[in-house]
Each structure stands twice: as structure tokens, then as C-alpha cells.
Design brief:
The chain is α/β, with parallel strands linked by helices. The protein contains four helices and ten strands.
């Protein structure tokens, strides 16, 4: 089974974008491991809002299959597919169990929340930037349960950015018990 890995920039106070959707606080002065990370993925899960932002700049990953989660988007170009809520679970399972590399969960917060709720996310790679935004879009939006994590890697950069990689401890699913 392919891993779904969230790789996202986050402020020290837990926001993935500022109050007006800005992300100008994200460091772009060096690679921060992105080249190696993107070499190990061949698919990107992305919400509609994040896809719209990405389209403003053109697709930076033409060699990756994009899966856009949206019930309002009607058309996509290139190597992309729209996944609607009515086939959300089945389509994700098909993708996860197909041959391929890891899957990058690019964004956004609503999609992350849905995938965490379904226990589909395998790893969190958080690039914690040394800034406090005070307000904006929280990374963990709408969670009602505790997430137990195992730290599997960390890296510190001279800019003050710290990357933390966590695996999620598997949840015990009571619905899987035999009757």
C-alpha cells in the first residue's frame, strides 16, 4: 500500500496560511528537502482551494498525477482528476492500493481533516517556520479526537525552520471487531 504523507509549511502557532490566505511567510531561500521528497512521490492529493492557488502559478509538478477533491470544480487540465464526495472513499482506496510511489497530501486543511478522520494519513512532515501569525487557517481543523504520533525524523536549518516527521500511531477500529 502506498503511503499518504502530508508535507506542509506551518507557523509556530499552527497556521498553514495567514488570515487573508497568504503564505508569504514561507521560506523559499533553499530546498529544505523538497527535491528528495518530490522524487519519492508520483501523486498529489489537493483540495480545490489549494488547486486554485496552484493554477495561478502553473503546475510545478507536471510529472505527478494530481487528484483534486472538489464537488464544485467542473474541469481540470493535464494529468489531473477530480474526486467528488460521492466516490471519495472508493477512489482513495483504489489509489492507495495501486502500484506507485508515495502520495503527497498537499492541502488543504479540510481535506486533511477528512483524511485523518478516515485514518488514511500515514505521515506528517511539518516544516515549522519561526513565525507566529496569530490568526489564519489552522492546520488541524475540526479534529475531535486525539492524534497519537511517533517522531521518526527531525531536521534543523540555519534559518530557524525545523522539520518534524511523524508517523501516526494506528487507531484501533472497534467497527472491525467480529460480532
Amino acid at each position: 500500500m502506498r503511503k499518504i504523507i502530508l508535507n506542509v509549511a506551518v507557523s509556530l502557532d499552527g497556521f498553514i496560511e495567514g488570515p487573508n490566505g497568504e503564505y508569504d511567510w514561507c521560506f523559499t531561500d533553499q530546498d529544505y528537502g523538497m527535491e528528495a521528497f518530490t522524487a519519492d512521490v508520483d501523486a498529489v492529493f489537493i483540495g480545490r482551494k489549494s488547486y486554485d492557488v496552484l493554477q495561478e502559478y502553473g503546475n510545478p509538478w507536471p510529472d505527478k498525477r494530481l487528484y483534486i477533491f472538489s464537488d464544485t470544480l467542473t474541469d481540470v487540465e493535464g494529468n489531473a482528476e477530480i474526486i467528488r464526495s460521492e466516490n471519495f472513499i472508493d477512489r482513495i482506496d483504489e489509489i492507495r492500493y495501486s502500484e506507485g510511489k508515495n502520495i503527497w497530501l498537499f492541502g488543504g486543511a479540510n481535506l486533511l481533516s477528512q483524511l485523518l478522520h478516515k485514518n488514511y494519513v500515514n505521515e506528517l512532515l511539518l516544516s515549522v517556520h519561526p513565525i507566529v501569525l496569530g490568526t489564519g487557517t489552522p492546520l488541524f481543523k475540526g479534529l475531535t479526537e486525539r492524534l497519537e504520533l511517533n517522531l521518526i525524523d527531525s531536521a534543523m536549518y540555519d534559518t530557524g525552520l525545523v522539520q518534524l516527521t511523524y508517523s501516526l500511531k494506528p487507531k484501533f477500529d472497534f467497527d472491525m471487531l467480529p460480532e
